[in-house]
Structure formats: C-alpha cells, structure tokens
Amino acid sequence: MTYDFKLSCTLPGSPEAVYDSWLDSAKHSAMTGAGAKIVKRVGGAYSAWDGYITGKTVELIPGKRIVQSWRTTEFAGDDPDSTIIVELAPTKSGARLTLTHSGVPKGQTSYEKGGWQDNYFAPMKTVRLRITGRVQGVGYRAWAIRRAAGLGLRGWVHNRGDGAVELLATGDEDAVAAMIEAARQGPPGAHVGGVEIADDEDDNSVGFVAQPTE
Predict the structure, then answer these.
(1) Do 191 and 138 share a structural domain?
(2) Catalytic member of 141, 147, 154, 204
(3) Catalytic residue among 71, 147, 154, 159
(4) pLDDT tens digits, one per residue of 74-90
(5) What is the spatial distance between Cα 37 and Cα 28, in angstroms, rounded to a whole number?
C-alpha cells in the first residue's frame, strides 16, 4: 500500500535558479548540506543526502518542471520507487515550488511531516554585510570562511578598496543571524567599528569562498 501527498513553499531565487540547483551536484549539496551526485539529463541517475535518496530523472522542462523516481534506504527491497514532481512558478519574492510525492510506502510519513520541509524547504535568508574598522590585514576573510562553513552558509567574502570587508551569506535564518553576530566581533586582531546589514538575493554560490578585492 502507498499514499500520495503535496507540499508547496516559496524559495528565494528565480525558478530557473532553483531548477539549476536541484539538478547540479555541487549546488544541490550546498542547498541541503549533504552530498549529492546528479547526472543532469532525462534517464540520468542521481543520489542525495549522502546516498540516503536515490533515483532517476524521468522528465525535464527547464525552469518549470522536474519529474524523478525517488526512494530512500528505508524502502524495503520489494517496494517500487515513488515519484516526485517538482513544479516551479515565479513570484514577486522568488519561486513557488509545488512538490507532488506519489507512491510513498504506507507508514513512511516522515517525508511529508517535516522531511521535505526541514531538509529542502526551510526558510532561507540572504544578507550582505559591510564590516568597517581594522578588518583588513588581520585574517578577517579566512576567519569568515571558516565561521560560515561551520554554520553551513553559502556565499563569499572580499576586501573592499575603501578598507572595509564585504560578505554575502545565504542559509537558514538562525545561521545567518549567528554569522551577523560573529561578524561584529571578528577574529583576534580585528577591531570592528560597525556592521552594515542589507537583505539581498541568493546568488547561488557554491560553498563559501574568498573573492578578489573590489
């Protein structure tokens, strides 16, 4: 016996960006925080969450629709694959994602009751920070990369020509808030005079890296 369910949410980024992240190994890994390997074509195999999820891509309409077979290591050996349909539509604040999950083994309700929401659809926030003070030549960028990676954030950091450090961070709201608080302190040797905070858009960065001075 199986059952079906439908979920929907609004994500930052355009439908095209969400579509690309879903089907790109590195971006999917960054989005979920766990390893993914994806062959980006119809008939291509994929795995996500370090092999917990596996399947094949059945149908693709760029920027609009993804259909995949889907199973986890919790499926019994004789359970057939379930099917997910991911439909994307633009909104004023990003992309509306509607997921239809059919053929789920009876009793495996964790995917509907928190699994998808917690691991794929948790609210994401992107901020741009401009940090001023004695923040160049003190290892601020290397420190920011380590701190952001520890919080599971994506984005970048660079020195500015005016002596400030600028960074863009994307992740769940609690992690972003923790990064903001950490940025106000900085590494040993830094003296942070101020942190300017502005909401921004996810640029689909992979990992958290240093960029050239601007």
Answers:
(1) yes
(2) 141
(3) 159
(4) 999 999 999 999 999 99
(5) 9
